[in-house]
């Protein structure tokens, strides 16, 4: 465990602060309680106070108790959101480099970086990692939901509509606002769970993924509606493995030592090990008059290891056998430190409600690999490597003002909001250990250092330079860049009649590194009756290139011809090799968002139906890996290209259209002496690529290649399920709490490009998952909960022989149902 000692001391101090001080507490109500949809929400509009049913755009409200009761594996916030919100997907990656360690969520089937994440209404910073080896969300630097613990959340607001005019860049698919807990009292949970699953490919019952979590929080009620709350959460999770029996790839040397490994489980497919500590605070302190100070912050420290990587056979190259006589499987690791804080003032002056705040967020990720080797250095190569450090920072200074104006011809006062914001973003990378990227000359492995031509038959890994599974960042990869963003916005909302509410907003943002953007929004809500209303919105949004996408470059190992691993360089768009293949400076994505729906409430019955269309032009994607008989020699002939087998870079090469609808139906009533609630939620989101623009420079080198080919088209259009259905029910009595959930995930498609025209495709069928939880409250303070996620132990379809990598990776990670099987858990809750 790589948690820094001072972090642990702070965690213990926070736990010590969470000691009982009964005289300042209000007694907590016993048992779980859903957050009411009548709660005033933060997102959707900056003018007036509205609930989820009153907004002119669709907003889901998910309570903290609901999130906790999902039984999300390991207590992950992102996983809990995926279980409850049909429009939200949170895939579990494996054998995907740093993407195994930092997971990204997506909204409405779109890219993770097209979803804006807020904490208490303030923009959250993104992870420093660019997920280049993942499938869903490839090439994105997204917000890491799991750096915020479940016990910090009071509710989550999911805005399912474009909101660039309200919040700026990234809000194309929608906005997720995480509202931190502000309630007084003490609350603590300790839980333990593990996977108990029957693994068909090896015909074994497996128990793994043991997970222990401990959290505590305490809130003080201060005078005049003030409060201060602190919390801590610790998680320890063992890895999982769903690999099959190895058949030994045909392109490996068919030697006795290699073939002796057939029939063994040499690979790993599943989750890595991790240890994680999270701290958080949230508070409001009344000052003089109407002025109050507010502040909140989070800290996360996560150490992950055992990330899946491909097995290296003993006769792959001579270095392997001298260091690892039985072969080896590298294990990637990550050291992730994340912190964020906000401090602000709000009050009233001259009839205006004023608010100003300063926010800062930073993420640092150190990536490396153990049990590896740099084959080009020979038997004296190190076996552990630090492959590079990634850092991102964000600072925001904002000023908001709002006021109601009496207008004689309006049914209610005109609500106006104005604001300005100054944001800075910084991104930097640092090289890895020298040995992690060094090109040696041992065993004909160091391509660029040899005087004699290389015989490809001498080595299976043609250019075995750098740490296997995690080649280090080189001096050329190091970068430090920054940007400055200035924005101003205005919004006005009014009840034009007794039944018609209209909201209009506009925003201008100027970036010092690529230009400016102007966005607008018009939304309205019309009450047909006191119980039923229509709502609609039209807006344009945008997404500036993530600063990490502008500065990121690295080297990885990917599939090439005949499914061998080849060296792939991710290049910046200004790299001469990238330019020679048609790379251009990145522009912002622009979108047109349309939505319309109906919402209603009849006593305990509530429903909503919203249809939407999102057109995105100049969508930023990572290009295909460009390799082949024509383009690889061209790359090798460029300065600095001798050791590169394939390249890729970011582009604005496609336009997409996303169409779909969301439907929600819920009913609540008293039944059998308790509170009964049942709900149905469904999302359908279909992404279609409308336009693909190729590069003339690339076509001139190899007419068969395209910047966006079969793999990236698959990523954009059908790698994510088009739909998700969630049926859930809960019952809560005096002492007993019961809940059940059935989820249906639509089919997903995987396409690989293994070169030479070999592009296997497989559709994985729809899957059902059943989750259950039962709780018993012994007293108002003490409760026990037991449950199962994926009770029926469902798995995706088995991958075909063309895709399962010679039996080693029997399941694909595309399906939201995951590849870990059944998870059983127990949790004890104590509060007062």
Key attributes of the depicted protein:
globular, 832 residues, 22-stranded antiparallel β-barrel, disordered N terminus, mainly beta, 12 helices, five-stranded mixed beta sheet
Model description:
- By secondary structure, the chain is mostly beta strands.
- Helices cover 9% and strands 46% of the residues.
- The protein has twelve helices and 34 strands.
- It has a 22-stranded antiparallel beta barrel.
- β11 and β12 form a beta hairpin.
Write the layout of secondary structure elements.
Layout: H1 5-17, E1 59-63, H2 64-68, H3 77-84, E2 88-89, E3 106-107, E4 115-119, E5 122-123, E6 153-159, H4 164-167, E7 174-180, E8 185-199, E9 204-222, E10 226-237, H5 256-259, E11 273-286, E12 292-307, H6 318-323, E13 331-349, E14 352-370, E15 385-405, E16 414-430, H7 434-437, E17 479-495, E18 500-511, E19 515-527, E20 532-543, H8 547-551, E21 554-559, E22 565-570, H9 576-580, E23 589-602, E24 605-622, H10 631-637, E25 646-648, E26 650-671, E27 674-692, H11 696-701, H12 710-717, E28 723-732, E29 736-745, E30 748-751, E31 761-764, E32 767-777, E33 782-789, E34 823-831
- Rounded Rg: 27 Å
Number of helices: 12
Low-confidence stretches: 1-35, 445-462
Strand content: over 45%
Structure classification? mainly beta
How would you summarize this macromolecular structure in one to three sentences?
By secondary structure, the chain is mainly β.
């Amino acid at each position: 465990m790589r948690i820094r000692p001072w972090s642990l001391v702070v965690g213990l101090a926070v736990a010590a602060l969470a000691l009982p001080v009964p005289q300042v507490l209000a007694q907590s109500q016993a048992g779980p309680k859903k957050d009411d949809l009548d709660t005033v929400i933060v997102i959707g509009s900056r003018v007036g106070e509205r609930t989820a049913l009153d907004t002119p755009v669709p907003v889901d409200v998910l309570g903290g108790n609901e999130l906790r009761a999902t039984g999300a594996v390991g207590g992950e916030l992102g996983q809990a959101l995926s279980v409850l919100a049909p429009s939200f997907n949170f895939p579990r990656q494996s054998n995907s480099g740093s993407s195994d360690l930092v997971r990204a969520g997506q909204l409405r089937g779109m890219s993770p970086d097209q979803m804006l994440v807020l904490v208490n209404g303030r923009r959250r910073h993104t992870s420093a990692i660019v997920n280049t080896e993942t499938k869903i969300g490839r090439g994105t630097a997204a917000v890491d939901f799991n750096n915020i613990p479940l016990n910090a959340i009071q509710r989550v607001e999911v805005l399912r509509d474009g909101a660039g005019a309200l919040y700026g860049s990234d809000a194309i698919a929608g906005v997720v606002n995480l509202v931190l807990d502000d309630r007084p009292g003490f609350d603590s949970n300790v839980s333990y769970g593990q996977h108990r699953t029957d693994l068909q490919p090896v015909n074994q019952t497996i128990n793994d993924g043991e997970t222990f979590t401990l959290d505590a929080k305490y809130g003080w009620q201060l005078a005049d509606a003030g409060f201060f709350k602190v919390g801590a959460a610790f998680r320890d999770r063992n890895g999982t493995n769903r690999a099959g029996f190895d058949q030994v790839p045909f392109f490996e040397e068919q030697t006795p030592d290699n073939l002796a490994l057939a029939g063994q489980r040499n690979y790993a497919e599943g989750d890595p090990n991790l240890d994680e500590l999270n701290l958080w605070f949230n508070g409001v302190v009344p000052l003089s008059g109407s002025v109050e100070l507010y502040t909140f912050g989070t800290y996360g420290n996560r150490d992950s290891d055992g990330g899946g990587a491909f097995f290296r056979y003993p006769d792959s190259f001579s270095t392997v056998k001298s260091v690892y006589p039985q072969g080896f499987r590298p294990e990637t690791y990550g050291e992730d430190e994340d912190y964020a804080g906000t401090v602000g003032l709000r009050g009233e002056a001259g009839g205006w409600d004023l608010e100003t705040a300063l926010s800062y967020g930073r993420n640092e990720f150190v990536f490396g690999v153990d049990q590896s080797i740099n084959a080009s250095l020979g038997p004296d190569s190190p076996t552990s490597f630090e492959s590079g450090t990634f850092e991102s920072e964000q600072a925001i200074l904002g000023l908001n003002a709002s006021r109601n104006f009496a207008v004689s011809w309006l049914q209610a006062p005109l609500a106006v909001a104005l604001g300005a914001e100054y944001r800075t973003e910084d991104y930097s990378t640092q090289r890895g250990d020298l040995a992690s990227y060094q090109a040696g000359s041992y065993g004909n492995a160091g391509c660029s250092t040899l005087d004699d031509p290389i015989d490809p038959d001498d080595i299976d890994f043609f250019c075995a330079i750098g740490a296997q599974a995690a080649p280090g960042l080189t001096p050329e990869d190091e970068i430090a860049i920054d940007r400055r963003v200035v924005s101003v916005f205005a919004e006005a909302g009014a009840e034009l009649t007794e039944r018609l509410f209209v909201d209009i907003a506009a925003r201008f943002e100027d970036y010092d590194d690529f230009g400016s953007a102007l966005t607008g929004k018009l939304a309205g809500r019309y009450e047909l009756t006191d119980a039923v209303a229509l709502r609609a919105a039209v807006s344009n949004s945008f997404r500036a290139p993530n600063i990490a996408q502008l500065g990121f470059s690295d080297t990885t190992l990917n599939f090439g011809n005949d499914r061998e691993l080849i060296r792939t360089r991710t290049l910046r768009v200004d790299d001469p090799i990238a330019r020679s293949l048609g790379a251009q400076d990145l522009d912002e994505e622009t979108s047109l968002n349309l939505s319309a729906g109906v919402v209603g409430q009849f006593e305990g019955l509530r429903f909503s139906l919203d249809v939407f269309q999102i057109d995105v032009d100049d969508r930023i994607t990572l290009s295909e890996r460009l390799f082949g008989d024509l383009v690889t020699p061209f790359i090798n002939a460029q300065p600095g290209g001798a050791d590169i087998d394939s390249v890729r870079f970011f582009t604005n090469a496609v336009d997409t259209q996303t169409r779909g609808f969301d439907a929600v139906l819920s009913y609540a009533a008293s039944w059998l002496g308790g509170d009964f609630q049942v709900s149905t939620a469904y999302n359908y989101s279909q992404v279609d690529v409308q336009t693909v623009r190729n590069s003339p420079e690339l076509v001139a080198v190899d007419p068969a290649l395209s910047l966006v080919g079969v793999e990236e088209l698959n990523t954009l259009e059908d790698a994510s399920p088009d739909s998700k259905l969630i049926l859930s029910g809960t019952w809560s009595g005096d002492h007993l709490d019961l809940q059940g959930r059935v989820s249906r995930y639509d089919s997903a498609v995987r396409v690989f490009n293994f070169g030479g025209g070999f592009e296997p495709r497989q559709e994985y069928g729809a899957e059902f998952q059943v989750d259950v939880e039962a709780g018993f409250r012994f007293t108002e303070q003490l409760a026990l909960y037991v449950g199962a996620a994926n009770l029926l132990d469902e798995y995706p379809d088995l991958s075909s022989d063309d895709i399962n990598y010679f039996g080693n990776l029997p399941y694909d990670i595309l399906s939201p149902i995951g590849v870990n099987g059944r998870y059983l858990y127990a949790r004890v809750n104590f509060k007062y």
